[in-house]
Amino acid sequence: MITPSALLHTDAFLSPFAIAEAVRRALEEDLGRAGDITSNATIPAEAHAQATMVARQAGTIAGLPLAVAAFQALSPDIFIQPHVHDGDPVARGIPVLTISGPARAVLAGERTALNFVGRLSGIATLTADYVRHAAGSKLRICCTRKTTPGLRALEKYAVRCGGGFNHRFGLDDAILIKDNHIAVAGGVRPVLERARARIGHLVKVEIEVDTLDQLKEVLASGLADVVLLDNMDIATLQEAVRLADGRVVLEVSGGVTQDTVAAIAATGVDYASAGALTHSAPNFDVALDIDA
Q1: Cβ contact 262:134 at 8 Å
Q2: pTM > 0.70: yes or no
């Protein structure tokens, strides 16, 4: 029997506990208190079914481990044959999984499995398009915390499946000083000094700036590891790269789209983060067809 982890993207990690918990919540949401009353009323308990999950568009696949876990949670007699793995590019009409076993279990798991694969493949596909536009440069495409509540680990995993990279997973894994922190703390240097005085030696410090004067103040302090250049035009980004001269890592946010990412990459910045990767990714069109 194939395990969900066997279909994970080789360069991205998703905890088996995160998979199990997401699947449990999704099945509980869909099956409610009485299960699939339609299938239970119309399909004999002994009926067997075989179905194929098919990509109805071209793109990058993600979410197969969750689909497998959903079906397997409904019956120990489910057999699944994968045809691709997470992170694989697929053409329209390509079979993704073949599922066979008790018909009631196949039908009960259908929507949950498709929801996971559709949502995560949509993110992976959009990310892959951003990455394609930055090809040939050193720029890395990153996601943000603008994720669906409760699904952050899954959605950030999907970004990795598409060739992107992850920013913070939460407020607790890195310092990111934004404009409101600067305003409340009394300025760039005071906020950086307070941050450095409180954190451990393994915690990185990133600070957001929206002017070159702020960038100069950050550089003069020597207290930041990463500077987030917020909503700057291309000419300003070019000057920021010149001023930084490799002393800090530079990240761009705001206005990062497929239309702008190539020009952003050409400035020489290191990272570009786009909330759209997770909050605006179209659903990937995938279907489950019962084999005749």
Answers
A1: yes
A2: yes
Active site residue 129: no
Number of domains in the chain: 2
What would the pLDDT profile of 118-155 be if each residue is shown by its tens digit?
999 999 999 999 999 999 999 999 999 999 999 999 99
Compute CA distances 279 → 67, 113, 206, 263, whole Å.
Answer: 21, 20, 23, 23
Same domain? For 137 and 276 the reply is yes
- Structural domain of 249: 132-280
Per-residue pLDDT tens digits for 235-264: 999 999 999 999 999 999 999 999 999 999
- Residue 146 is a catalytic residue: yes
Phi, psi for residue 138 in degrees, rounded to 5: -85, -5
Which one from 132, 146, 189, 216 is the annotated catalytic residue? 146
**111, 140, 194, 204: which is the annotated catalytic residue?**
111
- Residue 208 annotated in active site: yes
Per the annotation, the verdict on 29 as an active-site residue is: no
CATH number at residue 86: 3.90.1170.20
